[in-house]
Amino acid sequence: MPFFKTIRWIVWKDLVCELRSRETISSMLFFALIVILVFSFSFSMDQDAARQLIAGIIWVSFTFTGIIGLGKSFSSELQNDCLEALQISPIPKGAVYLGKVLANFLFMLSVEILLFPLFILFFNLDVVEELGILLLVFLLATLGLSAVGTLFSALTVQIRAREVMLPVLLLPLAVPVMIAAVEATRGTLNGDPYAFYSQWIQLLVVFDIIFTVVSFWLFELILDS
Amino acid sequence: MPFFKTIRWIVWKDLVCELRSRETISSMLFFALIVILVFSFSFSMDQDAARQLIAGIIWVSFTFTGIIGLGKSFSSELQNDCLEALQISPIPKGAVYLGKVLANFLFMLSVEILLFPLFILFFNLDVVEELGILLLVFLLATLGLSAVGTLFSALTVQIRAREVMLPVLLLPLAVPVMIAAVEATRGTLNGDPYAFYSQWIQLLVVFDIIFTVVSFWLFELILDS
Amino acid sequence: MINRFIRYIQRYKGWFGGGAALCLLIGLYTGLLASPPDYYQGEVVRIMYVHVPLAHTSLLAYSVLFGGSIWYLWKRDPLVDNMCQAAATITAMFTGLALVTGSIWAKPTWNTWWTWDPRLVSFAVLLLILAGYMMLRRLVDDPDREGKYAAVLAIVGGVDLPIIKFSVEWWRTLHQPMSFSTRGVSISDDLLVPLLFMSAGCWLLFAYMLMIRTQMLYLTELLQAKKGRLLSQTHFSQSAQ
Amino acid sequence: MIAIQATNLSKAYGFYRIFEDLSFEIRAGECFALFGPNGAGKTTLLRILATLQQPSHGQFSVFGQDGVTEKDLVRQSLMVIAHGSHLYDELTGFENLQFALALRGQAFDPKTLKYGLDRVGIGAFGDLKIRQYSAGMKKRLALAKVVIGKPKLLLLDEPYNALDEAGVTMTNLIIQQTLAREGAVLMTTHDRDKAAHVATRGGILQSGHLQHLTREQLT
Amino acid sequence: MIAIQATNLSKAYGFYRIFEDLSFEIRAGECFALFGPNGAGKTTLLRILATLQQPSHGQFSVFGQDGVTEKDLVRQSLMVIAHGSHLYDELTGFENLQFALALRGQAFDPKTLKYGLDRVGIGAFGDLKIRQYSAGMKKRLALAKVVIGKPKLLLLDEPYNALDEAGVTMTNLIIQQTLAREGAVLMTTHDRDKAAHVATRGGILQSGHLQHLTREQLT
Ligand code: HEM
Ligand SMILES: Nc1ncnc2c1ncn2[C@@H]1O[C@H](COP(=O)(O)OP(=O)(O)OP(=O)(O)O)[C@@H](O)[C@H]1O
Ligand SMILES: Nc1ncnc2c1ncn2[C@@H]1O[C@H](COP(=O)(O)OP(=O)(O)OP(=O)(O)O)[C@@H](O)[C@H]1O
Ligand SMILES: [Mg+2]
Ligand SMILES: [Mg+2]
Prior knowledge:
Chain C is mainly alpha-helical. Chain C has helices spanning about 5-35, 50-75, 80-110, 120-140, 145-155, 160-170, 190-240; strands at about 180, 185.
């Protein structure tokens, strides 16, 4: 089947299933809220400490939340052995990968966009000016996480103890993306000049490209028996 | 069947399965390590900031790790419908609960004990004197988490989206235990006099008793169709 | 056949609705127009007349949910289950509103929308428990288990109530400590009158909403049972052919 | 003696009714075979009798004990072989047998357990983890539980499913032994021929009603 | 025309050999029924032919295309009905059918899809979520895919399992239609009687070897 049509069908299927059940996004949302709450309170932050940690809290909670969505992306294919159906369909497997990345990206991004106003409220952020850059950082980091995360979701779903193995395998690879995202976000929130943290944004772009291209090629091996 | 014999068989079964596969403890260990690593990176901490946050980091990572073990405690009963076998066995369901709590407590505690030396190394802690109190805090908090966690593990394992729902339902209830544990740990690590944080330890005892008693009674309803 | 409690609700709910409207109107009038501004806080203090009753009521409403859950587990009356489901939704609404009004109040007085104060956190936790409760109800496939599991969650979640209540005592916090305590009332009459009316109004409003929502859930289920009878008949004929 | 006495049993999932007002009795020494089209509610009925699900209305008793109020006594006297094999992958066949019987309050010495494994033809594999068992071996282990546990009531959900001929013969033998010691058996199946060897009575569950079969219809 | 040509197919899990050096061919218009005891490797063989698993040795081709090197072409011509129904719980029956055929590169207008649903008797439930389907209805939906998709090779793993009589008849009808349009069918089953109505050839897989059955043995 044509490449782009396959992507479209995969995305369509994931979005329709999600719109029907609203399971993934709502559970991601709750989970993120609770993680933020737990973090903030466990670190018993007063205003000053918060300023320093906020970027870290944002990305740790987004990453953990993202892992939940990524996990469901393929574990939902296990119902009724749908994963096998994908395997033996005469479709380009790369298109399945891109479709899944796109769907995961959309899920994660919508959760982040829903949560961001809460962050602003919770931590008294002042972000009106840098909103554009912040959005860019969010887009790039989320893309990176979902690019590599989709690959590992497909990989771990086919092994034992999959619920644990996804974070265990993915987190080490996500750390570079997270660090770059944290540094860029911290710079933006501190109101530093763009040049101070532009290198981190460039790094994010590089990670995105590497992760997407490599995963695109490896995905076929993982999905194909 | 007699109450204590049932407890013994349940614990025996969980321990033997774990000794054979070593899945739960090893995956908990890995997960905890990675979480600690991610935290240290994302919060890019210097020594002083670390001192302030360390208690929070300890308990956030232990709680998340514990949730992994708790989740497996009952999801492992889903293989071959073993949960049904437990349901229709003529055994006191409270004994099943206590057996599971005990097993989970042992798993979580052994992971914590394995990890603690690492914390000391990583964050340069000086704990020789307060080791007894620290151990007490660990015991109490872990007991509280496994008491309420076992109940919710049994509950979520029988619903849809169970992997997500365990943290979503459990974390809000675990927050009080975590707060008390964090405050007590922080006090101990700061070398405060015992009277400063004794109230938190009392609170932990209270939570342990409430959670255990309430869960003990409610568990029967959850396991019994 | 319609449950007799549903009949009672049908008959008496108007009184609760009317009472709520009346008390709220008086409360709003005395609070917003008739009472003097606060010595320290100025006009801002008027948010109190909304915030405090809402917060009180949400705790009361959760207590109703808590009690109803125990009752349900004991008697297994499906109507009580409907009542619990209704109570959870309404409690969540009150809790949300109390949070929002508190937040609005916090901005001028503490100069921040939000702070990691124990009462605020434990209160937010209550909202999360309620959100989890509503999610849980959607995720149980077997309707017999739905009510039971939800009740279990509500009961264990009840631990949060005393924490909210006493957090201001245990921690030294920003938030106002209890003013109605065993040591007697600690605020002046000017403030007390509108506060009492608003509180009564919110309680009546809660009761009213609980009634109509319980009724609605009950009747919906009844309707679905009727529909189900038809559906099973088509199924039976399907498998017979 | 009456093994199962059901009166007006009904089951509905929410508003979707599976069956209504089923009344029947099964006596000790009888093997009742339950047939019926897909989705008729055979498994549901069996699970209700096994106290795994609640009936929506009606009641039933097992050897005189009420199935709703005295679950624990009912559970003492029955055993179920359903689609799930109720085995732990990490335990050996021997340990699984031991654990399963221990949960029923029956502690046996190793020799008896070994004998049970031998009886179903997997004595050589007693120390192998269940993970390495084939589907047929797992089914046989479940049968070993019945051989040793000697339940008074045996509930079987599609026992012949995916079993080869030797397995079918063994299952039928064990059913006959249960009947011989005055136990009762209820099984669901789509396979009339295989059931015909052991069933003493039968019925078809269809459109929510149970229609009893005569002797001739059964064979 | 040769539909499946297998030469020296072997499969081993680690050092555990399931079967060795299987060679056989199935022609277009033939329905081959594969019997054999539990754990003989019937499902494994079927999954290898469906390109879901790799053979350890040997090769096979489907309508002239090599099964290992030209997987995508092979996949174009086959359809599998296995234990899993390959359906998404949140999609309706109609949407599931649409998606499944779209993945095979076959886009149909709604009318054709509706026709397919009607053909297998679940036209009335097309807009219901799969979650609410009974097991039998799901199996029928899988058959609808075959009715519309018209694959050249059909692989069935225990197709009669847990199906009632009406379902069995329908399955056999669809097999016959596949044969009529010069397709080929391979199925595994334990149920010789039901297979006898449609199978044109048969074999027993046992101890790692395939033993062909004669016409008389088959019926
Ligand atoms: C998001 C912010 C806030 C939250 C979540 C919140 C929550 C609550 C809750 C749950 C109660 C009920 C306590 C009870 O019934 O015993 C309460 C009462 C009260 N709150 Fe707040 N509050 C917030 C902000 C504020 C602010 C900014 C003020 C004033 C400076 C304030 C003043 C009060 C007062 C005076 C009471 C009544 C205390 C009593 O009589 O017991 N609150 N609040
Ligand atoms: N959890 C559930 N929620 C709603 N409906 C259900 C549920 N479980 C089963 N059903 C429905 O109950 C009916 C009876 O199912 P059951 O499994 O008892 O059938 P069965 O007679 O055993 O069929 P089969 O021959 O396929 O095994 C089916 O129509 C099914 O759709
Ligand atoms: N992943 C695996 N690892 C090791 N052995 C396996 C694996 N999968 C299957 N087997 C073994 O391969 C053998 C063949 O299995 P298969 O499922 O093909 O049998 P089958 O003929 O379909 O049996 P049945 O009639 O029960 O369906 C079995 O003995 C099984 O134990
Ligand atoms: Mg069934
Ligand atoms: Mg097979």
